[in-house]
Every structure is written in C-alpha cells, then in structure tokens.
Amino acid sequence: MLLLVAALHELDPLYKEFTYSSKISSLILSLGYRRPVIMQSMYIFKQPGIGGEVVPHQDNSFVYTDPTSCTGLWMALEDSTTVNGCLWAIPGSHKNGLVRRFIRGEKGVTFDRPSPSYQQKDFVPIEMKAGSIIAIHGDLIHQSFENLSSKSSHAYSLHVVQTDGCKWAQDNWIQREKMPEPHFVLP
C-alpha cells in the first residue's frame, strides 16, 4: 500500500512555510522559472514491507501546461534505497517528449492513450540520503518499486509549473476554481 497526502503546501502551515522558504524558492528560480506556481504537493509514505510501487510515468502527464513546464522536486525525508523503494528513471527519456496525458473529460479522468511498455533494464536507481532533493524534468520517465525492507521510506514532493508564457490546460485532471498566484516572481 502506498499512502499519499496531497496539497500540504496549501493546507498545513508547517508545510506551507517550508514549501515557500527561501531555499525552495531559490532552487525553483535557479531552474529558470520566472512566475512559478506550485500546483501539487504530496507526502509519500512507503511503509516497511508494504509501501507500494509507482508505475512508470511522466509528471507532465498529470500537471500539464502548454507548452509543457512541470518540474518535480522530490525530497527524501528518510534514506531512499533500492530496497525501500527509491526512484528509478530512464536516463535521457525527457528528450523524447510527452508520451500521454491524464485528462478530465465527460466520463471522468483517464489517460488519453495506453502506456507504452518499458524495459526495466533501461531504468537506473536514484538512491538518496535523507535531506537530499532532486529536480525531475516533467518528461523524464520515472517509477519506484514497493518497499521490501524493514524501514520506512518517506518523501515530500512538489510539482512546479511556469505561468509566464504557459497556459494551464482546461482538461487537466487537477482543476481549481481559482488558480494559485505565483509566490516567487522575478522582476
């Protein structure tokens, strides 16, 4: 079982303070964002022996702008290893563009096309020490396996998009009555 708690950056004062801290804002701005918005945050609980897998995906599939602009920030709150369910990615896969989208339509939310099949031999592990952070290009194909260890593997993840020159798609599965305003803006 994989447990996720979403939107902590909006709902919890502690997570809001951390998410909008000078360290995170400096990192986001250093990636070239001019008017970034954090559209999604997730606390990921991978419990010992039961923490579930996350199938291969691209973040732009779920957090889509035109043109694409999503970057995932994945923070290891505990050591993340091949035994307890670390991230795995296909190096260079971000250069091939977006494979499919997760969209909201008349019949609910669904993918616009089937998932391609991937060769597990193409994935490499991204093991991380607690306190480390990685920036994930929105088109990078990545996944994680179940937690087979006796130790938990917790992480905090943010998905950032650009609002300067990028448009939030009306068929995104995440829809809000009012779009959030950028919290970090370059002059």
UniProtKB/TrEMBL annotation:
InterPro entries: Phytyl_CoA_dOase-like. Gene3D superfamilies: q2cbj1_9rhob like domain. Its cofactor is Fe cation. Signal peptide: none annotated. It comes from the Eukaryota. This is Fe2OG dioxygenase domain-containing protein. Pfam families: PhyH. Keywords: Iron, Metal-binding. It comes from Microthlaspi erraticum. One of its GO terms (molecular function) is metal ion binding. SUPFAM superfamilies: Clavaminate synthase-like (SSF51197).
